[in-house]
Write a structure and sequence with these properties.
This protein is of the alpha+beta class and 473 residues long. The protein contains 9 helices and 25 strands. It has a 5-stranded mixed β-sheet with strand order 7-6-10-8-9, with helices on one face. A 5-stranded mixed β-sheet has the order 12-11-15-13-14, with helices on one face. A 5-stranded mixed β-sheet has the order 17-16-20-18-19, with no helix packed on it. A hairpin with a 5-residue loop joins β23 and β24. The radius of gyration is 43 Å and the shape is elongated. It starts with a helix and ends with a helix.
């Protein structure tokens, strides 16, 4: 089916199923009934006069009426004149029409719409950063003007503030006067357009949905961005408000673009640091662990909050997901004001009743060292030696650490890989800790050069002795 026909059919079903659909100039209807033995089908197009002609039975003014109201009027009229006529009155095609949008919009324009479109959907694409959604005027084709507040419709569900469109509507979007932002520990952080007379309390309790449970109400920060339209730049200012000490008369007014931050009590908790063989986590708070891709050989650092008087055992158990496979947790320690306190993390994690007796203090640093595993590289390489073990690496990684093969001694990258227990591994196996990788000395030229000089010397001596023997005889 053609897309346009599908859209028209969908519009028709939506309109006839909505009890509040108001008929519009341009709507097309079909009236059908039996006049005696004759079937009558009478198409009707509603024009801008809103006078609906009911076949040859009269005219009725349907301006402002819903389709269901019009349907009842028409069917009652036909039934009165033709009883048992089986009258039917249907909407065959809802009207499409233009409304005008002007004011604080990207540009004044006419927008095509229909009778089931609401105000917010019509203006959404043409609003600017300075458009008010709380002060919008609609002037009808008949000259009646009303002002609407979309916030009340979209937040509170008052759909009388988000009306359906009608032919000839002129929508004027006015300029906003005050926009304020609330962030932090409120239920609905965001940027809101405030009405005249609304204060800090309105922004937090009404628009922001109220304080969150962990909000610090005694220290709200207000950042003020002054009017920079005057000559010269005026720096931003910040001041703090104890909301618990305010009442209606002392509640501060807010200026355009003020930013209010409500801190969380959790942010006032003391902090400590965990460093070393740990997974780097952004914005670590309590037990909120978000695992990320990491380099198992890289050192990480995490900041975490704790409760006053908390034993290190509960902190470490809460953070159990951060430790790398290469961590030597039995040798961890705490650095506190220059002193070192041993901390056996293995005992904490594997004994649920274990308490360390060590109470966390603010700005402690827990150091988790890496296990010191090594891999031995020997034989025909540039720099034989012991190298730190890194998981999930193959032989070529460690040969590279040793400077690569000595090509004068090794041919075809020939190696032998022997584990710490004597097991021989294949080339495509991952190298295990304490494995020995031996690059074989198997180059023909190497052996040739090794023995060429002594063999040549022996032959020379033999030749000299033979010559001397021949001379004597």
């Amino acid at each position: 089916m053609d897309t346009g026909l599908q859209t028209a059919a969908a519009d028709r079903m939506l309109a006839v199923s909505a009890p509040d659909y108001k008929v519009c100039a341009g709507d097309t209807f079909l009236l059908a009934y039996m006049a005696g033995s004759a079937a009558v089908e009478y198409p009707i197009q509603l024009d801008a006069s809103y006078m609906l002609r009911i076949s040859n039975l009269g005219n009725v003014n349907v301006r402002g009426k819903t389709f269901l109201e019009v349907k009842k009027i028409v069917e009652d009229t036909v039934t009165k004149n033709y009883p048992f006529s089986g009258v039917q009155f249907t909407l065959t095609a809802p009207a499409r029409f233009y409304v005008t949008v002007k004011g604080e919009v990207t540009q004044a324009q006419q927008i095509a719409t229909w009778g089931m479109a609401r105000l917010d959907s019509v203006i959404e694409s043409v609003l600017t950063d300075y458009s008010s959604t709380r002060d919008i005027t609609i002037t009808s084709a008949g000259g009646e003007s009303n002002t609407y507040d979309l916030f009340k419709a979209l937040r509170g569900g008052d759909m009388t503030q988000n009306p359906y469109m009608s032919p000839g509507d002129v929508i004027t979007v006015n300029r906003l006067s005050r926009l304020c932002t609330v962030t932090g520990a409120v239920e609905r952080p965001g940027t809101y357009e405030l009405l005249e007379g609304e204060t800090l309390a309105d922004l937090i309790e009404y628009y922001g949905g109220g304080f969150a449970e962990d909000a610090d109400r005694k220290s709200l920060s207000v950042t003020r961005h002054p009017n920079t339209s005057v000559t010269g730049e005026i720096p931003d200012s910040i001041f703090y408000v104890d909301f618990t000490q305010l009442n209606e008369s002392s509640m501060p007014a807010l200026d355009h673009l003020d930013e209010i931050e409500v801190s969380s009590i959790a942010r006032l908790k003391p902090v400590l640091f965990i460093e070393g063989a740990v997974l780097e986590i952004e914005d670590q708070q309590d037990d909120d662990l978000t695992q990320q891709v990491y380099d198992p050989g890289a050192s990480g650092r995490i900041t975490t909050f704790f409760t006053e008087g908390e034993d290190y055992a509960t902190i470490i158990r809460r953070m159990s997901g951060i430790f790398l496979d290469t961590a030597d947790m039995a040798k961890a320690y705490i650095v506190r004001r220059g002193s070192v306190i041993p901390l056996n993390i293995d005992s904490i994690l594997y004994d649920t009743e274990y308490l360390t007796g060590i109470i966390a203090e603010s700005y402690d640093s827990v150091i988790v060292p890496f296990r010191l595993f090594y891999v031995n590289v020997a034989g025909a390489v540039q720099n034989p030696g012991r190298f730190p073990y890194i998981p999930d690496r193959t032989w070529d990684y460690y040969i590279g650490l040793a400077g690569g093969f000595d090509k004068t001694r090794n041919s075809f990258d020939s190696i032998e890989i022997i584990g710490s227990d004597g097991t021989e591994y294949a080339k495509d196996d991952y190298i295990q800790p304490e494995t020995t990788i031996t690059a074989k000395t198997n180059a023909f030229l190497y052996y040739f050069n090794q023995y060429a000089v002594p063999v040549t010397t022996l032959l020379s001596i033999a030749s000299t002795l033979l010559m001397f023997y021949n001379t004597i005889n």
